[in-house]
From TrEMBL:
Organism domain of life: Bacteria
Molecular-function GO terms, alphabetical: alkanesulfonate monooxygenase activity
SUPFAM superfamilies per the UniProt record, alphabetical: Bacterial luciferase-like
Transmembrane segments: none
Record Pfam families: Bac_luciferase
Name of the molecule in the record: Luciferase
Taxonomic lineage from the root: Bacteria, Bacillati, Actinomycetota, Actinomycetes, Mycobacteriales
Length: 193
């Protein structure tokens, strides 16, 4: 659901996402985030663990990714290194593949970052949080047209309250540790009530 962009090579993500976008005939939405060190998934590999530094890497990396999708020759020398790189072909979706940001926060810089793109996936949001997110986004971008907020749907989630607050998507979240039979059981049970 969310790719921790600071851990990935931007050119590889650019090529993978364009491939998926083309194979799906323009249905890809890319989820990005800074990543977390749960289970030492960063520190065990010598990755950057400081969240502020990873946030800067995410911001620069996202801009570089968008530039790569556009087909222009890209040069970045801070946080992300790209020296005269051009990635073609580009995505089916124009002007670019939609980008949503995953976050554990419902305010501050993660919301401001997402406001410049297409959506936010706040992992622990309540309906009132969704309303505040839309207010903050509207203030930054002058409206909420084309902006989505996705929430985590559990069996007991009152989707009507989230929809009334403005949420546009509800998704189940699966984490490392979920077994295949748990995922299949949830899929087979159908959408939440």
């Amino acid at each position: 659901m969310v790719t921790p962009l600071p851990r990935r090579r931007i050119i590889k993500v650019a090529r993978e996402t364009v491939t998926l976008d083309r194979l799906s005939d323009g249905r890809l939405i890319l989820g990005l985030g800074i990543g977390i060190d749960t289970g030492r998934e960063l520190s065990a590999f010598g990755e950057v663990t400081d969240p502020r530094q990873r946030a800067r890497m995410l911001e620069v990396g996202t801009k570089a990714l968008v530039d790569l999708w556009s087909g222009v020759t890209v040069n970045y020398t801070h946080e992300v290194i790209l020296d005269g790189v051009r990635a073609i072909p580009g995505p089916v979706q124009q002007p670019r593949i939609p980008i949503w940001f995953g976050t554990e926060r419902v305010s501050g810089s993660p919301v401001a970052r997402a406001a410049h793109y297409d959506g936010l996936f706040p992992l622990h949001a309540k309906p009132a949080d969704v309303q505040r997110i839309f207010e903050a986004v509207a203030e930054i971008r002058g409206g909420i047209d084309g902006f989505d907020v996705a929430i985590v749907a559990r069996r007991d989630t009152d989707l009507d309250n989230f929809q009334s607050a403005g949420a546009t998507w509800a998704m189940h979240a699966f984490w490392p540790g979920h077994r295949t039979d748990q995922v299949l059981r949830l899929i087979e049970s159908g959408p939440p009530n």
